Amino acid sequence: MTNRELMERDLRHIWHPCTQMKDHETLPLIPIKRGEGVWLYDFDGRRYLDAISSWWVNLFGHANPHISEAVSRQARQLEHVLLAGFTHAPAVELAEKLAHLTPRGLEKVFFADNGSSAVEVALKMSYHAHRNRGEERSLFLSLSNSYHGETLGALSVGDVELYKETYEPLLIRNIQTPVPRDTSPEASREALKALEALLAERGKEISAFIVEPLVQGAGGMHMYGAEYLRGARELTRKYGVHLIADEIMTGFGRTGTMFACEQAGITPDFMTLSKGLTGGYLPLSVVMTLDEIYGLFYCDYSEYKAFLHSHSYTGNPLACAAALATLELFERENTLEVNHTKARRMAQNLQRFLELDTVKSIRQTGMIAAVEMIDYPAQERKGLEVYRYGLEHEVLLRPLGNVIYFMPPYVITEEQIDLMMEVAYEGMKSVGRGAL
Ligand SMILES: *Cc1c(COP(=O)(O)O)cnc(C)c1O
C-alpha cells in the first residue's frame, strides 16, 4: 500500500471534517500507517512530528504501550455495557479519580462521549437546574472569540464566525462579552467591568456563563489572566448565573497545572472535560458538577425533574480504561513537574520568532505556545504555506489562520522541541520571502 493508493480510495468515499474537499485536488491527504511517541509514519516511509497532538487529544505519545495494554486488557474483559441501570469498575474508578483531581466541590460526574456533547450536557443541565428551582433562564453568555464545539448548542455559545455564521438561524439564544485582550491585569479589569455591566442589566435572563479558562484554543490560542476567572466567578455568583469552565482543551496539564481553573483558585458550577482525558485513545467526555446542582434534580419520581439525557456510548469501559491508564501516567511519570522544564525550553525557542518580520507576537501558557503572524488577509492562506513547509520538513503544524502554535504530546524531548520550533521558524521565514 502507498500513500497515493490509500488517498485515492479515501477520496472516493470519505467526506473529511473541517475541510473544503476541493482543496485536496492540490493538497495531498496524508495516510498514516502507524504512530510511535511524537511521530506519525505514512505509507511512503515519511514521518511527521505531531506538534499539535492530533487536534489536542494526545498526551503521552502515539501507541503508548501503557495505555494500549490497558485498553486491550479491558477489551478482553468487557467492551461495553449501558450506563443506565448498570455500572462497571472503570467508570466508578474514573469518577472517583476525577472527583479527587478537579477543584474542590466538583463531586458528581456525568459521562458523555465527545467534547461537544459534554458542552450540550452542561448547557441543558444549567438551564434545567434553574427550571427545577422555578426560574426560567433561557439565555447563555460566552466570551468573544470563544469555541465550544460544533453541535448546535455548543456552536451557539461559540464565537468563531467561520463556523457559526452559516447556522445563525438555527442557534439557541446567546450573547457574548469581551474576552480580556491579553494576559495583563488591566485587560482583565476592563473585561470584568463589561461583564459586570452586562450581568447587572441581563443577569436574570442568563442561565450560564461558559468560558475556556486561560486559553481560547480554536480562537487562535488567545490567552488571558487568572484575575479574570476569579472576577467572573464572583460576579456570576452574585447574579445567580452558573459558571461553566470548558476545560476540554485546557484540562490535563496543558496550561501547566492539571486544570486551568486551579491557577485562579476557583470552583466552577460545571466543568467539561474531554480530548486529553483518554490520552487521545478513544472518545469520552465528562461534565463535573456540584452536589448542590445534583440535588436540584434528586427527588421522588416526578415528570420533568430528572436529567433524561443519554448517549449510547456514555461511559464506555474501553474509553474509561484508557482514561485511567492516562491518569496513572501522570502520577508515574511526575508529568506536571517534568513539563515545567519542557515549557521553559519552548519559551526559550519562542523568543527567536520575534526576529522575523512575518511575526506580530508570541505567547505561551504552560505547554501551549503560539506565534501570531502579521495580519495577512485570510485568502493569502499564509498559515497553509507554513503547514506545507512543516510537512516537507517532518513536522505536523496545523495553523489556525495566521497563528502557528505548538501543543505537543508530553513525551516530547527537549531536542524534539528544538526541532519542532526550528522548522516552524524556517517555515515562517520562507513565507516572508515569498511575500517580498
Ligand atoms: C475541541 C473543543 C470542544 C469540542 O470537542 P469535540 O470533541 O471536538 O466535540 C469544545 N470545547 C473546547 C474548548 C474545545 O477545544
UniProtKB/TrEMBL annotation:
<protein>
    <recommendedName>
        <fullName>Adenosylmethionine-8-amino-7-oxononanoate aminotransferase</fullName>
        <ecNumber>2.6.1.62</ecNumber>
    </recommendedName>
</protein>
<dbReference type="InterPro" id="IPR015421">
    <property type="entry name" value="PyrdxlP-dep_Trfase_major"/>
</dbReference>
<feature type="binding site">
    <location>
        <begin position="311"/>
        <end position="312"/>
    </location>
    <ligand>
        <name>pyridoxal 5'-phosphate</name>
    </ligand>
</feature>
<comment type="function">
    <text>Catalyzes the transfer of the alpha-amino group from S-adenosyl-L-methionine (SAM) to 7-keto-8-aminopelargonic acid (KAPA) to form 7,8-diaminopelargonic acid (DAPA). It is the only aminotransferase known to utilize SAM as an amino donor.</text>
</comment>
<comment type="pathway">
    <text>Cofactor biosynthesis; biotin biosynthesis; 7,8-diaminononanoate from 8-amino-7-oxononanoate (SAM route): step 1/1.</text>
</comment>
<keyword id="KW-0663">Pyridoxal phosphate</keyword>
<comment type="subunit">
    <text>Homodimer.</text>
</comment>
<dbReference type="InterPro" id="IPR005814">
    <property type="entry name" value="Aminotrans_3"/>
</dbReference>
<feature type="site" description="Participates in the substrate recognition with KAPA and in a stacking interaction with the adenine ring of SAM">
    <location>
        <position position="18"/>
    </location>
</feature>
<keyword id="KW-0093">Biotin biosynthesis</keyword>
<feature type="binding site">
    <location>
        <begin position="115"/>
        <end position="116"/>
    </location>
    <ligand>
        <name>pyridoxal 5'-phosphate</name>
    </ligand>
</feature>
<dbReference type="InterPro" id="IPR015424">
    <property type="entry name" value="PyrdxlP-dep_Trfase"/>
</dbReference>
<dbReference type="InterPro" id="IPR049704">
    <property type="entry name" value="Aminotrans_3_PPA_site"/>
</dbReference>
<feature type="binding site">
    <location>
        <position position="310"/>
    </location>
    <ligand>
        <name>substrate</name>
    </ligand>
</feature>
<feature type="binding site">
    <location>
        <position position="398"/>
    </location>
    <ligand>
        <name>substrate</name>
    </ligand>
</feature>
<dbReference type="Pfam" id="PF00202">
    <property type="entry name" value="Aminotran_3"/>
</dbReference>
<keyword id="KW-0963">Cytoplasm</keyword>
<feature type="modified residue" description="N6-(pyridoxal phosphate)lysine">
    <location>
        <position position="275"/>
    </location>
</feature>
<comment type="similarity">
    <text>Belongs to the class-III pyridoxal-phosphate-dependent aminotransferase family. BioA subfamily.</text>
</comment>
<keyword id="KW-0808">Transferase</keyword>
<dbReference type="GO" id="GO:0005737">
    <property type="term" value="C:cytoplasm"/>
</dbReference>
<dbReference type="GO" id="GO:0030170">
    <property type="term" value="F:pyridoxal phosphate binding"/>
</dbReference>
<dbReference type="GO" id="GO:0004015">
    <property type="term" value="F:adenosylmethionine-8-amino-7-oxononanoate transaminase activity"/>
</dbReference>
<keyword id="KW-0032">Aminotransferase</keyword>
<feature type="binding site">
    <location>
        <position position="55"/>
    </location>
    <ligand>
        <name>substrate</name>
    </ligand>
</feature>
<keyword id="KW-0949">S-adenosyl-L-methionine</keyword>
<dbReference type="GO" id="GO:0009102">
    <property type="term" value="P:biotin biosynthetic process"/>
</dbReference>
<feature type="binding site">
    <location>
        <position position="275"/>
    </location>
    <ligand>
        <name>substrate</name>
    </ligand>
</feature>
<feature type="binding site">
    <location>
        <position position="147"/>
    </location>
    <ligand>
        <name>substrate</name>
    </ligand>
</feature>
<feature type="binding site">
    <location>
        <position position="246"/>
    </location>
    <ligand>
        <name>pyridoxal 5'-phosphate</name>
    </ligand>
</feature>
<dbReference type="InterPro" id="IPR005815">
    <property type="entry name" value="BioA"/>
</dbReference>
<dbReference type="InterPro" id="IPR015422">
    <property type="entry name" value="PyrdxlP-dep_Trfase_small"/>
</dbReference>
